[in-house]
Amino acid sequence: MILTLTYLLVFGPSFALAQTACTAKNAKGTCIATSSCSGTSVAGLCPGAANIQCCIPK
User: Fold this and answer.
1) pTM for this structure?
2) C-beta of residue 32 within 8 angstroms of C-beta of residue 49
């Protein structure tokens, strides 16, 4: 139990920050918060909250 909690505390944040690859409009992108996207955001392709969308770079 303690080992599991330690593992989650140490590695949990890195999993939360891991970005998921996505493809939209025949271009490769990354699932990130829309507020962090400097390109085009495409909804419906990424897991998580509504503000996490596929960001296609300019």
Assistant:
1) 0.69
2) no
